[in-house]
Design goal:
The chain has 614 residues and is an alpha+beta fold. It has 5 domains: 182 residues, Four Helix Bundle (Hemerythrin (Met), subunit A); 57 residues; 111 residues, Beta-Lactamase (2-Layer Sandwich), CATH 3.30.450.20; 71 residues, Helix Hairpins; 146 residues, Histidine kinase-like ATPase, C-terminal domain (Heat Shock Protein 90). It has 13 helices and 14 strands. The strands form 4 sheets. It has a 5-stranded antiparallel sheet, with helices on both faces. A 5-stranded mixed sheet has the order 9-11-12-14-13. Helix 10 crosses helix 12. It is rod-shaped and about 225 Å long. It starts with a helix and ends in a 5-residue tail after the last strand. 24% of the residues are buried. The site of adenosine-5'-diphosphate has 22 residues, from helix 12 and helix 13.
Amino acid sequence: MTLRAKILLAQTPLAGALILIAVLSGITSAALGRNVASILQDNYRSVLAAERMKESLERIDSAAMFIVAGERGRGMAQAEQNFPRFEAELTVQQNNITERGEPEATIVLRQSWNAYRAAFDRFVGGGNHAALEASYFETMNPLFVATKNAADRILDLNQDAMVRKRDQARRSAKRFNAVMLATALLASLIGLGASTVLTRRILSPLSVLGQTARRLGEGDMEVRAKVSRQDEIGTLARDFNLMADRLAQYRHSSLGELLQAQQQAQAAIDSLPDPILIFDLEGSLLSANRAAERVLHVTVEESTGAPMVRAEPQIRAVVEKVRVKALADEAGYAPGGFDEAVRVSPAGSDGNDVFLLPRAARVTTEQGGLVGVTVILQDVTRVLRFDELKNNLVATVAHEFRTPLTSLRMAVHLCAEESVGPLNDKQLDLMQAARQDTERLQQIVDDLLDLSRIQAGRMELHRRRVSVESLIREAIAPFASAARDKNLGLKSDIPPGLGEVDVDTERMQLVLANLIGNAIRYTPAGGAIVVRGRRADTTVFVEVQDDGPGIPKQYQTAVFDKFFRMPGSGSGGAGLGLYIAKEITLAHGGRLSLTSEPGQGSLFSVELPASAAA
Ligand code: ADP
C-alpha cells in the first residue's frame, strides 16, 4: 500500500466519526420535523375546525336572535350562510380524528349539531314573537350551548395534545442533543485516537531511518536501516542503505589509498640516512624514520601506538630547542656551525660515536598554515673527522715549519742587512723581496699555530689591566708607515673616559692588528681608516672603520669562518685573520661584529667588558 493510501486510511476513523454525527443529526432533525408535521396535521387542523365551527355556531345563534327580534330576513340569510360552513368544518373534523377521546367527542358534536339543526328548523317555523322567544330560550339556547361545548371539547382535546406533543418534542430534542453531543465527543475521541495510532505506525520507520542516519554520520559504517515495507518509506530506506553501502566502499578505498600514501611517505623518510623526527604543533612525535629509531632509540609506545623518543636527555633537549626555535621562526632553524653538533652513542655502534647537527624545518599546508615541525639530525661525523684530520695536519705543518722558517728568516735578514758581505743592487732587491715573503710566511705560520691552539681548546690568556687608549695607540703605531706608503689616512678617535679592560694584551693586539691590517690591505689608495674607542655603560667598543669596498651581505657571516676568503681578495693571508680575531674576542667574553654595505666601507667592532673601576 502506498504512503498516501496509508495516510488516507489513518484519516478514516475521524471521517467515520463525522459521518456518524451527520447521520445522527439527520435522524434527529427528521424526527423533530415529523413531530412538527404531526402537530400541524393532526391537531392544528382540528383546532382550526373547532374554532370555525364555534364561529359559525355563534353566527347561527345571533341569526336566531335576529329572527326573535323580528328581522327574519336578515337572520335567515345569516343562518343559511353558516350552516354549510359548520357542516364543512364538521366533516373536516370527522375525517381528522387523531386523539384519544376525540371519536366520542366528535360523535357528541355531531349529535348536538344535528339536534340543534333540527331545532333551528322547528324554531324558524314558530309564529309570533313570544313563541319564537320562548322556543329560543327553551330549546335553541341549551342546544347551542351543548354544541358549542362539544366543539370546545374537541378544541381542548387538540390543544392539550398540541401542548403534550410540544413538550414531548422538547424532551426528545433535549435527549437527541445529549446523545448527539456524547456521540460526537466519543466518535471524535475514538477517531482521533485511531488516527494517531495509525499515523504513528506509519511514521515509526522514519525515526528508525533518522537514528541510522545519525549513527552513520558518527562514523559507524556498518549500520543499516532495518525497514521492511513496500511503501515510499521502504523505498527511501532501501535507497539509504544503498548509499551507506557506497559510502562504506568509498571509505574503505580512500582509507586504503591513504594508508598507501602514508607507507610511501614513511618509506621515503626511512630511506634517508639521517635521523628525522616529525612533530605536530603540540610537540607530540608523529613520525620518525629508521635512522631515528636506530640512533635515537625512538620506539612506538605499545599502549597508545604513539612514537616516543627514548634518547638521552641531552639529545632530547637539543631536539626540543630546535623544534621550539623553528616554531617561532618562519625560516625554521639552521645551525650556526659544526660546533652545534651533538655526540651520540647509538646502540651497537661499538663505541663509535656519531655527531649529529640539528636542523629544523616547518611543515606547512598548501595555504601556508603551520601544522608541525620536522627535525633533521644531520650526521656530520665524517665531516668532523676530516676537519680534525685537517687541523692535525695544519698543526703539524705549522709546527714543523717554525724552526726552519726562523733560521730562514734570520739568514735572509742577515743577508739583506749586508751583515755577511756587500750585495749589489739587484741582489739587495731580491733579498728584500725574499725578506717580505718570509715575514708573510711567518705571519701565516703564526696564524696556523694560533688556529691549532684555539681548536685544541688550549688558548691560555694572560690577562693584564690596560687602558683602552693605550691599547688603541699601541695597535695603530706599527701600521703608520704602511698606511703612509699606501697613501691612506690612518687616524685614531679616542674620547676621554674609555676606562680600562682586562685582556691578554698580546692577543688583543693580534686582534686589532688583524683588523687594521685588513683595512689597510683592502682599502684602495686615498682612503681613510679610523680606529675608534667608544664606551656604553660597562661595555667598551674598539671599532676599525674604513671606506673601502665593503663586504656584501651574503659573506658577512662567512668572513669569520676559518680559511674563508672572499672571491677576488687577491694575494694575502690564508683566510684565518678574522676567525682568530673572533675566537680571541670570544675567549675574552666579548664579541666581534661587522657592519658593512658594499661600496661604503666596513666597520669591525670589538666589544669587551670594561673592567670595574679600581
Ligand atoms: P685574509 O687573511 O684573507 O685577510 P681574513 O679572515 O682576515 O683573511 O679576512 C677574510 C676575508 O674578509 C678577506 O679575504 C677579505 O676578502 C675580507 N675582508 C676582511 N677585512 C676586510 C675589509 N676591511 N674590507 C673588505 N674586505 C675585508
